[in-house]
Design brief:
alpha+beta
Length: about 325
Amino acid sequence: MSTLPWNDIPNGRDAIPVSEDPSTPHRFMWALHNKRHYTLLYLVSQSDLLNIDMDLPSLQSVDIYFTPSSPCYLAVSLLDSSFADIFLDLCNDLISSTRQSTTREEGLANLVNRCWRWQSLLYRKGSPLLSLQEQQGLFAELSFLSDHLIPSLGLSRSLEMWQGPYGSYHDFVSPPTDIEVKSFRAFGTPKIRISSEHQLEHPLDKTLYLACYSLAHDQTAGCSISSKAEQISSLLAGSAPAICGLFYSLLEEAGFSWTHNYENSKWTIQSLLCYKVRNGFPSINRSSLDSAIVHAEYDLNPLLLADFAADIGALVASLL
Protein backbone atom coordinates (compact mmCIF):
# COMPACT_ATOMS: atom_id res chain seq x y z
CA MET A 1 0.00 0.00 0.00
CA SER A 2 1.24 3.49 -0.86
CA THR A 3 2.03 6.10 1.78
CA LEU A 4 -0.64 8.28 0.18
CA PRO A 5 -4.04 6.54 -0.02
CA TRP A 6 -4.98 8.33 -3.24
CA ASN A 7 -2.27 6.40 -5.06
CA ASP A 8 -4.19 3.20 -4.26
CA ILE A 9 -7.21 4.26 -6.33
CA PRO A 10 -7.31 1.80 -9.26
CA ASN A 11 -7.31 2.97 -12.85
CA GLY A 12 -10.82 3.64 -14.03
CA ARG A 13 -12.10 4.64 -10.57
CA ASP A 14 -12.32 8.07 -8.93
CA ALA A 15 -12.65 7.02 -5.29
CA ILE A 16 -12.20 4.22 -2.76
CA PRO A 17 -13.62 3.87 0.78
CA VAL A 18 -11.51 5.00 3.70
CA SER A 19 -13.04 2.22 5.79
CA GLU A 20 -15.50 -0.62 5.28
CA ASP A 21 -16.56 -0.64 8.96
CA PRO A 22 -20.35 -1.28 8.93
CA SER A 23 -20.75 -0.24 12.57
CA THR A 24 -20.21 3.47 11.88
CA PRO A 25 -22.70 5.76 10.12
CA HIS A 26 -19.87 7.80 8.66
CA ARG A 27 -18.74 7.14 5.11
CA PHE A 28 -15.47 8.66 3.96
CA MET A 29 -13.87 8.25 0.54
CA TRP A 30 -10.38 8.92 -0.77
CA ALA A 31 -11.06 10.55 -4.12
CA LEU A 32 -9.38 12.24 -7.06
CA HIS A 33 -11.24 15.40 -8.07
CA ASN A 34 -10.91 16.03 -11.81
CA LYS A 35 -8.66 12.95 -11.77
CA ARG A 36 -5.80 14.86 -10.16
CA HIS A 37 -6.71 16.73 -6.94
CA TYR A 38 -6.35 14.67 -3.76
CA THR A 39 -9.74 14.82 -2.02
CA LEU A 40 -11.47 13.55 1.11
CA LEU A 41 -15.23 13.00 0.71
CA TYR A 42 -17.75 12.71 3.54
CA LEU A 43 -21.20 11.35 2.66
CA VAL A 44 -23.87 13.84 3.75
CA SER A 45 -26.94 12.38 2.04
CA GLN A 46 -27.80 9.66 -0.46
CA SER A 47 -30.55 11.88 -1.92
CA ASP A 48 -30.39 15.15 -3.79
CA LEU A 49 -28.34 18.04 -2.43
CA LEU A 50 -29.79 19.28 0.83
CA ASN A 51 -30.40 22.94 1.58
CA ILE A 52 -27.46 23.19 3.98
CA ASP A 53 -27.20 26.65 5.53
CA MET A 54 -23.59 26.40 6.59
CA ASP A 55 -20.66 28.69 5.94
CA LEU A 56 -17.48 26.84 5.07
CA PRO A 57 -13.95 27.99 5.90
CA SER A 58 -11.25 28.79 3.39
CA LEU A 59 -7.83 27.20 3.72
CA GLN A 60 -4.83 28.07 1.63
CA SER A 61 -4.39 25.52 -1.18
CA VAL A 62 -7.47 23.59 0.03
CA ASP A 63 -10.98 23.83 -1.38
CA ILE A 64 -13.92 22.91 0.91
CA TYR A 65 -17.36 22.56 -0.70
CA PHE A 66 -20.51 20.48 -1.02
CA THR A 67 -20.74 18.41 -4.19
CA PRO A 68 -23.68 19.44 -6.42
CA SER A 69 -24.59 15.91 -7.46
CA SER A 70 -26.45 13.06 -5.78
CA PRO A 71 -25.30 11.60 -3.46
CA CYS A 72 -24.15 14.74 -1.67
CA TYR A 73 -20.68 14.86 -0.13
CA LEU A 74 -18.67 17.38 1.81
CA ALA A 75 -15.43 17.57 -0.17
CA VAL A 76 -12.04 18.70 1.10
CA SER A 77 -9.76 18.96 -1.90
CA LEU A 78 -6.05 19.75 -2.13
CA LEU A 79 -5.14 22.18 -4.91
CA ASP A 80 -1.34 21.91 -4.60
CA SER A 81 -0.03 18.33 -4.52
CA SER A 82 3.31 19.43 -3.04
CA PHE A 83 1.49 19.65 0.32
CA ALA A 84 0.14 16.08 0.10
CA ASP A 85 1.79 14.83 3.30
CA ILE A 86 0.41 17.73 5.37
CA PHE A 87 -2.97 17.36 3.70
CA LEU A 88 -3.07 13.70 4.72
CA ASP A 89 -2.58 14.79 8.35
CA LEU A 90 -5.51 17.18 7.94
CA CYS A 91 -7.69 14.42 6.47
CA ASN A 92 -6.85 11.98 9.25
CA ASP A 93 -7.68 14.63 11.84
CA LEU A 94 -11.02 15.33 10.16
CA ILE A 95 -11.85 11.63 10.11
CA SER A 96 -10.98 11.35 13.81
CA SER A 97 -13.25 14.30 14.66
CA THR A 98 -16.35 12.23 13.79
CA ARG A 99 -15.60 9.21 15.97
CA GLN A 100 -17.80 10.34 18.85
CA SER A 101 -20.67 11.36 16.55
CA THR A 102 -23.62 8.97 16.35
CA THR A 103 -25.27 10.43 13.22
CA ARG A 104 -24.14 11.88 9.91
CA GLU A 105 -25.59 15.25 10.93
CA GLU A 106 -23.37 15.31 14.01
CA GLY A 107 -20.44 14.08 11.97
CA LEU A 108 -20.89 16.88 9.44
CA ALA A 109 -21.12 19.49 12.21
CA ASN A 110 -17.92 18.21 13.82
CA LEU A 111 -16.13 18.09 10.46
CA VAL A 112 -16.98 21.69 9.60
CA ASN A 113 -16.14 22.83 13.11
CA ARG A 114 -12.74 21.14 12.86
CA CYS A 115 -12.13 22.81 9.48
CA TRP A 116 -12.79 26.18 11.11
CA ARG A 117 -10.30 25.25 13.82
CA TRP A 118 -7.67 24.54 11.17
CA GLN A 119 -8.36 27.87 9.49
CA SER A 120 -8.07 29.67 12.81
CA LEU A 121 -4.85 27.86 13.65
CA LEU A 122 -3.23 28.65 10.31
CA TYR A 123 -4.56 32.21 10.14
CA ARG A 124 -3.21 33.16 13.57
CA LYS A 125 0.13 31.41 13.15
CA GLY A 126 2.84 33.69 14.52
CA SER A 127 0.39 35.90 16.44
CA PRO A 128 1.65 37.15 19.82
CA LEU A 129 0.62 35.52 23.07
CA LEU A 130 -2.10 37.45 24.87
CA SER A 131 -0.86 39.19 28.00
CA LEU A 132 -2.13 38.07 31.41
CA GLN A 133 -4.42 41.11 31.55
CA GLU A 134 -5.75 40.39 28.04
CA GLN A 135 -6.37 36.74 28.95
CA GLN A 136 -8.25 37.83 32.06
CA GLY A 137 -10.43 40.18 30.01
CA LEU A 138 -11.19 37.55 27.35
CA PHE A 139 -11.96 34.97 30.04
CA ALA A 140 -14.55 37.35 31.50
CA GLU A 141 -16.21 37.97 28.12
CA LEU A 142 -16.32 34.26 27.26
CA SER A 143 -17.73 33.49 30.72
CA PHE A 144 -20.47 36.09 30.27
CA LEU A 145 -21.30 34.55 26.91
CA SER A 146 -21.39 30.95 28.09
CA ASP A 147 -22.96 31.46 31.52
CA HIS A 148 -25.54 34.18 30.91
CA LEU A 149 -26.18 35.18 27.30
CA ILE A 150 -26.18 31.81 25.51
CA PRO A 151 -28.53 30.05 28.00
CA SER A 152 -31.04 32.92 27.72
CA LEU A 153 -30.66 34.21 24.15
CA GLY A 154 -29.23 31.26 22.24
CA LEU A 155 -25.96 30.90 20.39
CA SER A 156 -26.70 32.94 17.29
CA ARG A 157 -28.03 36.11 18.93
CA SER A 158 -25.40 36.00 21.69
CA LEU A 159 -22.52 35.85 19.21
CA GLU A 160 -24.08 38.58 17.07
CA MET A 161 -24.15 40.79 20.17
CA TRP A 162 -20.44 40.25 20.89
CA GLN A 163 -19.05 43.32 19.13
CA GLY A 164 -16.08 44.17 21.36
CA PRO A 165 -13.54 42.20 19.27
CA TYR A 166 -14.60 44.23 16.22
CA GLY A 167 -13.78 47.51 17.93
CA SER A 168 -17.14 48.53 19.38
CA TYR A 169 -17.04 50.80 22.42
CA HIS A 170 -19.06 48.18 24.34
CA ASP A 171 -18.43 44.44 24.47
CA PHE A 172 -22.03 43.37 23.81
CA VAL A 173 -24.40 45.47 21.75
CA SER A 174 -28.15 45.12 21.15
CA PRO A 175 -30.98 47.54 20.30
CA PRO A 176 -32.31 47.83 23.88
CA THR A 177 -29.16 47.27 25.93
CA ASP A 178 -25.37 47.50 25.74
CA ILE A 179 -23.11 45.65 28.15
CA GLU A 180 -19.51 46.36 29.04
CA VAL A 181 -17.73 43.40 30.71
CA LYS A 182 -14.79 44.00 33.02
CA SER A 183 -12.72 41.94 35.41
CA PHE A 184 -10.50 42.51 38.41
CA ARG A 185 -8.33 40.40 40.70
CA ALA A 186 -10.10 38.99 43.74
CA PHE A 187 -7.21 39.81 46.07
CA GLY A 188 -5.92 43.28 46.89
CA THR A 189 -7.61 46.58 46.13
CA PRO A 190 -10.10 46.00 43.31
CA LYS A 191 -9.58 48.17 40.25
CA ILE A 192 -11.57 48.18 37.04
CA ARG A 193 -9.64 49.66 34.15
CA ILE A 194 -11.80 51.85 31.90
CA SER A 195 -9.73 52.10 28.76
CA SER A 196 -11.36 55.08 27.02
CA GLU A 197 -13.65 58.04 27.52
CA HIS A 198 -16.21 56.28 25.30
CA GLN A 199 -16.48 53.03 27.25
CA LEU A 200 -19.03 54.23 29.82
CA GLU A 201 -20.69 56.79 27.57
CA HIS A 202 -24.41 56.19 27.90
CA PRO A 203 -25.89 55.47 24.44
CA LEU A 204 -29.00 57.42 23.50
CA ASP A 205 -32.32 55.57 23.94
CA LYS A 206 -30.52 52.51 25.33
CA THR A 207 -29.60 51.02 28.68
CA LEU A 208 -25.95 50.47 29.55
CA TYR A 209 -24.82 47.88 32.10
CA LEU A 210 -21.38 47.24 33.53
CA ALA A 211 -20.73 43.59 34.43
CA CYS A 212 -17.63 43.08 36.58
CA TYR A 213 -16.05 39.71 37.34
CA SER A 214 -13.91 39.13 40.39
CA LEU A 215 -11.37 36.50 39.27
CA ALA A 216 -8.79 34.44 41.11
CA HIS A 217 -5.76 32.90 39.45
CA ASP A 218 -6.19 29.19 40.29
CA GLN A 219 -4.14 26.51 38.53
CA THR A 220 -5.86 23.67 40.42
CA ALA A 221 -9.57 24.38 40.02
CA GLY A 222 -9.51 27.10 37.39
CA CYS A 223 -10.26 27.24 33.69
CA SER A 224 -8.13 28.72 30.89
CA ILE A 225 -9.35 30.84 27.98
CA SER A 226 -8.62 27.88 25.70
CA SER A 227 -10.96 25.68 27.75
CA LYS A 228 -13.66 28.37 27.71
CA ALA A 229 -13.32 28.73 23.95
CA GLU A 230 -13.47 24.93 23.55
CA GLN A 231 -16.70 24.75 25.59
CA ILE A 232 -18.43 27.23 23.29
CA SER A 233 -16.93 25.61 20.21
CA SER A 234 -18.40 22.25 21.26
CA LEU A 235 -21.82 23.84 21.79
CA LEU A 236 -21.67 25.30 18.29
CA ALA A 237 -20.63 22.01 16.70
CA GLY A 238 -23.57 20.25 18.30
CA SER A 239 -26.30 22.90 17.99
CA ALA A 240 -25.36 25.64 15.53
CA PRO A 241 -22.59 24.60 13.10
CA ALA A 242 -23.66 27.29 10.63
CA ILE A 243 -22.19 30.01 12.87
CA CYS A 244 -18.92 28.28 13.80
CA GLY A 245 -17.15 30.66 11.45
CA LEU A 246 -18.54 33.71 13.26
CA PHE A 247 -17.19 32.46 16.59
CA TYR A 248 -13.74 31.75 15.20
CA SER A 249 -13.67 35.15 13.52
CA LEU A 250 -14.49 36.80 16.85
CA LEU A 251 -11.75 34.86 18.62
CA GLU A 252 -9.24 35.86 15.95
CA GLU A 253 -10.23 39.52 16.24
CA ALA A 254 -9.81 39.25 20.02
CA GLY A 255 -6.22 38.07 19.44
CA PHE A 256 -6.79 34.47 20.50
CA SER A 257 -4.92 31.67 18.73
CA TRP A 258 -5.37 27.94 19.22
CA THR A 259 -1.63 27.53 18.60
CA HIS A 260 -0.73 29.12 21.93
CA ASN A 261 -0.70 27.29 25.25
CA TYR A 262 -2.72 29.21 27.82
CA GLU A 263 -2.95 26.40 30.37
CA ASN A 264 -0.55 28.19 32.72
CA SER A 265 -3.19 30.87 33.32
CA LYS A 266 -6.36 29.44 34.81
CA TRP A 267 -9.10 31.44 36.49
CA THR A 268 -12.00 30.88 38.84
CA ILE A 269 -14.92 33.28 39.20
CA GLN A 270 -15.30 34.60 42.73
CA SER A 271 -18.26 36.88 42.06
CA LEU A 272 -20.09 38.82 39.38
CA LEU A 273 -21.11 42.40 40.18
CA CYS A 274 -23.50 44.25 37.88
CA TYR A 275 -24.16 47.97 37.69
CA LYS A 276 -26.58 50.11 35.73
CA VAL A 277 -24.77 53.06 34.21
CA ARG A 278 -27.20 55.95 34.69
CA ASN A 279 -27.08 59.62 35.62
CA GLY A 280 -24.55 60.19 38.36
CA PHE A 281 -22.48 57.08 37.63
CA PRO A 282 -18.80 57.98 38.19
CA SER A 283 -17.24 58.12 34.74
CA ILE A 284 -15.27 60.24 32.33
CA ASN A 285 -17.19 60.72 29.10
CA ARG A 286 -16.28 62.20 25.75
CA SER A 287 -19.19 64.63 25.92
CA SER A 288 -17.87 66.19 29.15
CA LEU A 289 -14.21 66.48 28.13
CA ASP A 290 -12.46 69.49 26.71
CA SER A 291 -11.67 68.98 23.02
CA ALA A 292 -7.95 69.35 23.82
CA ILE A 293 -8.11 66.03 25.72
CA VAL A 294 -7.90 63.34 23.06
CA HIS A 295 -7.91 60.24 25.26
CA ALA A 296 -8.61 59.25 28.86
CA GLU A 297 -8.03 56.06 30.88
CA TYR A 298 -8.94 55.61 34.51
CA ASP A 299 -9.64 53.03 37.23
CA LEU A 300 -12.87 52.48 39.18
CA ASN A 301 -13.27 50.81 42.56
CA PRO A 302 -16.28 48.49 42.13
CA LEU A 303 -16.82 48.33 45.89
CA LEU A 304 -17.81 52.00 45.87
CA LEU A 305 -20.53 51.61 43.25
CA ALA A 306 -23.23 50.06 45.43
CA ASP A 307 -25.74 52.83 44.64
CA PHE A 308 -25.77 51.63 41.04
CA ALA A 309 -25.94 47.88 41.72
CA ALA A 310 -28.17 45.81 39.43
CA ASP A 311 -29.26 42.20 39.36
CA ILE A 312 -27.88 39.94 36.64
CA GLY A 313 -31.42 38.63 36.11
CA ALA A 314 -32.68 42.15 35.38
CA LEU A 315 -29.77 42.69 32.98
CA VAL A 316 -30.61 39.54 31.00
CA ALA A 317 -34.35 40.30 31.14
CA SER A 318 -33.71 43.67 29.47
CA LEU A 319 -32.45 41.78 26.41
CA LEU A 320 -35.48 39.54 26.00
